[in-house]
Design brief:
Blueprint: E1 5-10, H1 14-24, E2 36-40, E3 51-54, H2 56-64, E4 74-76, E5 78-83, E6 89-93, H3 94-97, E7 103-107, H4 108-120, E8 125-128, E9 130-138, E10 141-148, E11 151-162, E12 175-190, E13 197-202, E14 207-213, E15 216-223, H5 225-233, H6 236-247, E16 254-269, E17 274-275, E18 278-280, E19 286-287, H7 295-311, H8 322-349, H9 354-369, H10 371-383
Parallel strand pairs: 1-2, 1-11, 2-8, 5-13, 11-18
Antiparallel strand pairs: 3-7, 4-7, 5-6, 9-10, 10-11, 12-15, 12-16, 13-14, 14-15, 16-19, 17-18
Helix pairs in contact: 1-4, 1-7, 7-8
The structure holds flavin-adenine dinucleotide.
Length: 387
């Protein structure tokens, strides 16, 4: 049966856009020859200030996609992990891990724009201001219902890739664990320079990350929803005093605060990431706590691996579910391990129970002293489970 397009990607966020580029772009493995249509709900540029720490592995993928130039990232050369009010710390550095940098910090808007611009300059049908509303099986193809400027329309495709965050009708509902935490993000400046060190500090409310971002630091601070909302609106003096109290004096004093935003946090994952003719990737497949900065890095690997799988078969065979099943199986270990590690970190570090405090301290001291264990951890964070 004929279809309007070979691959319909619902959601042109960073992960959906990366998949489109991996299939249509001239970088990567070259244009696949598949007809690709992206449906993106936003009609305007994204205005999301959240910082995104990219692993070295993600840099390599974005370079292959031709989307790395212009991101203007800030290098992370060291990562310093500690817990508030208890002993133990771990310091990882790029040289020990055998990579030029442990990571790179950009913001969501830059990634969104860089990928969208790269797509527009390739042979890809990129439709903005289009909201998908439902998915149906229609004979041998999939049908996506959508609205654009208030008018309803449909698109048929051999394969639909859902990369929208998981709200569309026609898919199994995701499993959700509400962390009852918000991430408060902001840009802050400090009296001491960051020297390209990223800090992760575990507090009784949850983890607090300060990432080098240009001359400033990008803050991701996990708090109870009430405290996060209160600090989002607090005056400068109150905010800086609270941050100094939680983080300590490693960067001196906090001087300015800008672009504050709050994000409710939960773990959401699709029990089945594929079914005949439909596959979910990125946040639609799994939405993680930002504690280890792994969500986009994992989603980018989803996009890359899916593109490689879709390239291997003839167009007529795309609707056959075998290739999507193979893709799902190939992602099982990386996805499961990243999800479990991130969830475990949140559970282990988001409380103040004394014996756990001591165990965490002992664990960190051990990691701090045993270089191979520390480098193993660093490589997992950099390349995923295949690192
Ligand atoms: C505070 C915070 C900090 C983070 N820090 C990091 C980090 O340091 N490193 C990291 O790797 N990850 C990080 N993440 C996670 C990262 O933001 C996500 O993993 C990433 O945004 C997932 O991209 P995505 O394209 O799958 O989904 P999204 O970014 O959610 O994009 C989905 C896209 O789909 C579109 N859409 C939605 N519904 C529809 C529809 N019905 N029809 C059409 N289009 C639709 C949306 O407009 C959007 O453009 C962080 C997250 C948070 C909240």
């Amino acid at each position: 049966m004929n279809a309007d397009t070979d691959i319909a990607i619902v959601g042109g966020g960073p992960v959906g856009a990366a998949l489109a580029l991996a299939l249509c772009g001239n970088g990567g493995s070259g244009n696949s020859g598949l007809r690709v249509t992206v449906l993106e709900a936003r009609a305007e540029r994204a205005s999301d200030p959240r910082p995104i720490a990219l692993s070295h592995g993600s840099r390599l993928l974005l370079e292959r996609l031709g989307a790395w130039r212009g991101l203007n990232p800030t290098v992370i050369s060291n990562i310093h992990v500690s817990q508030r009010g208890a002993f133990g710390r771990v310091v990882m550095n790029a040289a020990d891990a055998g990579v030029p940098a442990l990571g790179y910090v950009v913001d969501y808007n830059h990634i969104f724009l860089a990928l969208a611009d790269a797509i527009r300059s390739n042979e890809c049908d990129y439709r903005e201001g289009v909201r998908a509303t439902a998915l149906h099986h229609d004979g041998g193809v999939r049908r996506v219902d959508y609205t654009r400027d208030g008018a309803a329309a449909t698109l048929t495709a051999r394969v639909v890739v859902v990369a929208d965050g998981g709200d569309i009708e026609g898919l199994a509902p995701p499993k959700i664990t509400d962390y009852a935490q918000h991430a408060l993000t902001a840009r802050v400046s400090t009296t001491l320079p960051h020297k390209n060190v990223a800090y992760e500090r575990f507090t009784k409310d949850g983890p607090l990350a300060l990432l080098p971002f240009g001359d400033e630091m990008a803050l991701v601070w996990t708090l109870t929803p009430a405290r996060a909302e209160a600090l989002k609106d607090a005056d400068l003096k109150t905010f800086c005093a609270a941050l100094r109290e939680a983080f300590g004096g490693r960067l001196g004093d906090f001087k300015t605060v800008a672009q504050r935003a709050c994000y409710p946090l939960s773990l959401r994952y699709a029990p089945q990431t594929s079914m005949p003719g439909v596959v979910t990737i990125g946040n639609a497949a799994q939405t993680l706590h930002p504690v280890a900065g792994q969500g986009f890095n994992l989603g980018l690997r989803d996009a890359w691996e899916l593109a490689q799988a879709l390239r291997t078969i003839r167009v007529q065979a795309l609707s056959d579910n075998g290739i999507l099943r193979q893709y799902r199986a190939s992602r099982r270990i990386d996805r499961g391990a990243t999800l479990a590690a991130t969830h475990g970190l949140v559970r282990l570090f988001s409380n103040d129970f004394f014996p756990l405090n001591a165990m965490r301290g002992a664990g960190m001291t051990l990691l701090g002293c045993v270089a191979p264990a520390r480098n193993f951890l660093a490589r997992r964070m950099i390349f995923g489970v295949r690192g």
